[in-house]
Design a protein that fits this description.
Elements: H1 2-6, E1 9-12, H2 17-25, H3 28-36, E2 40-44, H4 59-68, E3 75-77, H5 95-107
C-alpha cells in the first residue's frame, strides 16, 4: 500500500481481466489506495481476448469493467497494429516497446 501511495505511475494489466486484474483491485485496501494516490494509473490492454472470459470485449469494455469496479484510469495503452506480438515469444507484449510507451506517458 505504501508503494501505491509513493508511486508516480501505476501500471494495471495486462492480464486476465476478471481473475487477475479486477481480483487485485477490488481488495478494499488496494481500491482505497488506488483511489487516493496521485500517481497516474495506466491500463495496459491485453493483445487479444482471453476466451471465453473476454470474448467480444474491446478495449472500451475492459475500461468500463474497471470503472464499474471503482477504478478510474488515467491512460490506456492498447496496440492497434495487426501484428503486435514479439517474434521470439509469440504470445506477449514486446518489453522494449511497452517500456518506451510507459516512459512516454510518464514524461507526459
Amino acid at each position: 500500500l505504501d508503494a501505491i501511495a509513493r508511486a508516480d505511475q501505476i501500471v494495471i494489466g495486462p492480464g486476465s481481466l476478471f481473475t487477475s486484474v479486477l481480483a487485485a483491485v477490488v481488495v478494499p485496501e488496494i481500491r482505497r489506495a488506488l483511489a487516493t494516490t496521485k500517481a497516474r494509473k495506466v491500463y495496459v490492454a491485453n493483445l487479444r481476448p482471453q476466451i471465453p472470459e473476454t470474448a467480444g470485449y474491446d478495449v472500451a469494455a475492459h475500461v468500463d469493467a474497471l470503472v464499474a469496479h471503482g477504478l478510474e484510469i488515467d491512460d490506456v495503452l492498447a496496440h492497434t497494429e495487426e501484428h503486435p506480438l514479439t517474434d521470439d515469444v509469440g504470445r506477449g507484449h514486446d518489453p522494449v516497446r511497452l517500456a518506451e510507451a510507459l516512459a512516454g506517458l510518464y514524461q507526459g
